[in-house]
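Consortium newsletter contribution from the modelling node. Members have asked for a concrete example of what our holo predictions look like. Here is one, prepared for the guanine complex that several groups have been discussing at recent meetings.
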Amino acid sequence: MSAKVIDGKAIAETLRARIAIEAAKLIKDHGVTPGLTVVIVGDDPASQVYVRSKVKQTAEAGLNSTEHKLPADTSEADLLALIAKLNADPSVHGILVQLPLPKQIDAERVIQAIDPAKDVDGFHPINVGRLNAGLDSLVPCTPQGCVLLAKTIHPDLTGMNAVVLGRSNIVGKPVAALLIQESATVTIAHSKTRDLKQVCRAADLLVVAVGRPEMVKGDWIKPGATVIDVGINRVPGAEGKTRLVGDVDYAEAAEVAGAITPVPGGVGPMTIACLLANTLKAAALAAG
Ligand code: GUN
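And here is the predicted structure:
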């Protein structure tokens, strides 16, 4: 059997087109252009690539986008001062501080300094709490993208056996919270889980976010299951080049699964589309 490939690139494109239409409406009806500000500290190459994509796609959807590039030796106090300025700026509806941050800066303190109404990452404890309480909130982008992709295969996730492999604050835990909200039966598995392979094999929906290249093999997957692979890992490829692989062994998994996201072109494009959706939502709320 060969799994259906979930085309995250195309699905994200459709979502971005919808956001562009809604943004244009907000501009026309309320005179408010949604504005996203991205802050990057230092020159981590992977972060620079992500930030460039975020800024470019924001502009393409007709939203305002600004970028603050700060040197790697920026102090925490200077970054907090910038955030205070952005919190007070009514033209800024969304603030994203790219992670990871240099070690002299406490990321948690920075996240908590962002106005929760502008926290388009959904990382502020207020938004985390609201999500877990089932209240309306700004939801983390990658988890939102995972659930939207799963719903292209299963529009109703009610009662499905979902296993989330990975328990990070950024992906695993919020994916689980969203799936609970969709009335799925959710198990969070991680590196300390006993019989990990068997736990994964019980899943009708398997979301993998562990950051370990090709860890999940074909025999970890229930035949016909839907697999959402959040991993983006650079591994040595042919001719001294690197190639991108997920946390799932795609070639093996595609033989067993019913549907699967590729890497690249699966969850990745959805993350940015959901960031734009959050910026639009924050702007619409601010516009009243
Ligand atoms: N670095 C990697 N992924 C993310 C993300 O979703 N948000 C932020 N702020 N930084 C990241």
